[in-house]
Amino acid sequence: MNKPLSVLITGASSGIGAQLAADYVAKGYQVFACGRSAERLQNLTGVTPVVFDIDDREQVYQAGRNVASLISAPLDIIILNAGVCEYIDDARQFDDELFARVIHTNLIATGYCLAAFLPLVAKGGHLALMSSSATFLGLPRAEAYGASKAGLSYLAASLAVDLAEHDISVSCISPGFVATPLTDKNNFAMPMRISAAQAARVIMSGIEKKQYAINFPRRFIAVMKLLAWLPKRWWHKLIRLQPKANSGSGTSKGLKK
Questions:
Q1: Is the pTM of this model over 0.85?
Q2: Is the pLDDT of residue 32 over 70?
Q3: Is 145 a catalytic residue?
Q4: What is the Cα–Cα distance from 253 to 86, expressed in whole angstroms?
Q5: Least confident of 91-100, 150-159, 206-215, 248-257
Q6: Domains in the chain, start-ordered, CATH in brackets?
Q7: Which of 29, 87, 145, 212 is catalytic?
């Protein structure tokens, strides 16, 4: 009898991660659902909860050891989805502590997860990193978030080259706006926002096809890429015409799922 396929998902206690966990369970996968909240993870049906804070290197390493002790065969898929979003309201009074927090959680802590979990991935397995469509275009107040996600995009591109010889494929996921607890904190317009269920379907389809770039929704991505082709001075004038969000809005400090 063939063993069930397996997937490990970080940031699985809410939003896209929780939806992915539920959908992979429905497909018969053994799901290792990772997050900080034991209570939220235990509310997910059919998963193996793995509780840790991705910002804590030793907790991540211990989680890797715990998962290694639970599996009878290497993992088929890991999806490193956990992250935070905080905005810099005044670029001239640059908040270096906020910047460091976001970079650490979204990028450095992803490195912890790679060190802990990538050795557990099977030959022929798949790694997916959660970047963002924010990397396509310089956006207001997104210095920390955008920089962290741009780093993830480059990390995915480099890993795709180096892991190919180990027969591990890589996806870089770059969503637009998705209805999650993270985006619910935003008080600005979020055009073409889709549900977490829609996002999970696109992500799972892309991973099944071993697709490198998983960008969605398509119309939103097309608009972002078109705007990115504009001369910078045109884009700067256009963005200044948009109403500004209130100072301090949209901060999602500590929402690492």
A1: yes
A2: yes
A3: yes
A4: 6
A5: 248-257
A6: 6-240 (3.40.50.720)
A7: 145
